[in-house]
């Protein structure tokens, strides 16, 4: 019913979207991750589907129901997420990266559980940088030619506008969306800052599905332009 009442602004468009955190193993029972409920990404996937898009959602470990009509691929680590994205991206018109990808992973995940030896000694962990999924996609020839429209998100704890502008330029995406804090992790409400080459606008505080629908309408306008 909702889809029947929603303007089909993304009819015929194929959206690939990442959502949720990634999880990087230290050993079979421990790992590092980022804070992300995945709610914003899942809401965007749902809103895009309602607007007529064919949606593929690449999701890190989250406890959320797949939106109706959305095709979902579950992944764990950043490298899994990149592999899944690369397998799907050639078929997409639009790529939206909402995932909170872990920036680093342990350099050598242990095959067996690391045991305390009772001496109080702590393990020394070394990290390596994970691939930047959004930058990899946004730097591809299809994205650079405009055949693939890329949207990034920015998680910042301070100086949102300045950091978002720098990030937009560094990732080479036409549109970067910042979460207007202070703390929206896991909450149902959010507010968004949209940063593009011309400036910035705000989508004021609302529930994530409302914001997702507004963002989808905005992205559809840009795709059509
Ligand atoms: N991103 C990604 N792959 C990564 C890191 C980030 O695809 N390895 C994407 C996120 O999904 C988001 C955007 O890049 O759309 C910005 O992520 P963010 O963590 O805010 O920026 P970083 O470039 O990782 O910089 P930092 O964490 O230092 O602020
Ligand atoms: Ca990061």
TrEMBL record:
Region (Phosphopantothenate--cysteine ligase): 15-225
Name under which the protein is recorded: Coenzyme A biosynthesis bifunctional protein CoaBC
One Gene Ontology biological process: pantothenate catabolic process
The organism's place on the tree of life at top rank: Bacteria
EC nos: 4.1.1.36, 6.3.2.5
Family membership noted in the UniProt record: In the C-terminal section; belongs to the PPC synthetase family.
Every DNA/pantothenate metabolism flavoprotein C-terminal domain range: 10-221
GO molecular function term, any single one: phosphopantothenoylcysteine decarboxylase activity
Catalytic activity: N-[(R)-4-phosphopantothenoyl]-L-cysteine + H(+) = (R)-4'-phosphopantetheine + CO2; (R)-4'-phosphopantothenate + L-cysteine + CTP = N-[(R)-4-phosphopantothenoyl]-L-cysteine + CMP + diphosphate + H(+)
Cofactor: Mg(2+); FMN
Function of the protein: Catalyzes two steps in the biosynthesis of coenzyme A. In the first step cysteine is conjugated to 4'-phosphopantothenate to form 4-phosphopantothenoylcysteine, in the latter compound is decarboxylated to form 4'-phosphopantotheine.
Residues annotated for CTP binding in this entry: 103, 113, 131-134, 153, 167, 171
Keyword presence, Flavoprotein: yes
Keywords: Decarboxylase, Flavoprotein, FMN, Ligase, Lyase, Magnesium, Metal-binding, Multifunctional enzyme
Cofactor note: Binds 1 FMN per subunit.
Spans traversing the lipid bilayer: none
Pathway(s) it belongs to: Cofactor biosynthesis; coenzyme A biosynthesis; CoA from (R)-pantothenate: step 3/5; Cofactor biosynthesis; coenzyme A biosynthesis; CoA from (R)-pantothenate: step 2/5
Gene Ontology cellular component list: phosphopantothenoylcysteine decarboxylase complex
